[in-house]
Protein: Glutathione-dependent peroxiredoxin
Amino acid sequence: MIKVGDTLPATTLMEYSEVEGEGCSIGPNAVDVAKASAGKTIALFALPGAFTPTCSAKHVPGYVQHFDDLKAAGVDEIWCVSVNDAFVMGAWARDQKTGSKVRMLADGSADFAKATGLTLDLTGRGMGLRSNRYSMLVKDGKVASLNVEAPGKFEVSNAETLLSQAKG
Structure:
């Protein structure tokens, strides 16, 4: 499993972007994790799936709500990573009104989740291999802090925890 001090895995995530509102899409576009994180401080959080109850009701809204606070604490970008395709992540971004506050990044084949060692097998629930719920503060591509949730919990990967770590 990835740990504090490790470099983010050299993988590619996908991002769906729109031209104007509900207009034609640009992409999905490939996001090279190493290039996109170089020289930046990133509040990255991952979760089992788009449109799932805890993820939609608490996880994403917390990061949208604390966007200004995270920026003030030195965070350049906020990334939400989930094992979904880029089109689902784009639709979820519209639903959650993330705008330019949170980059909704798709890990469609779970390559990033597997490379971090933070997978969650939800095959028994019809969802296949997913990402565990966690957050990490990333500085110049390296993990500065890591908060992995226990199964079924939402206690340490929230925006407030990562904000306190960014301020510290």
About this structure: The radius of gyration is 15 Å. Residues 12-167 form a domain with the Glutaredoxin fold (CATH 3.40.30.10). The first helix runs from residue 33 to 37.
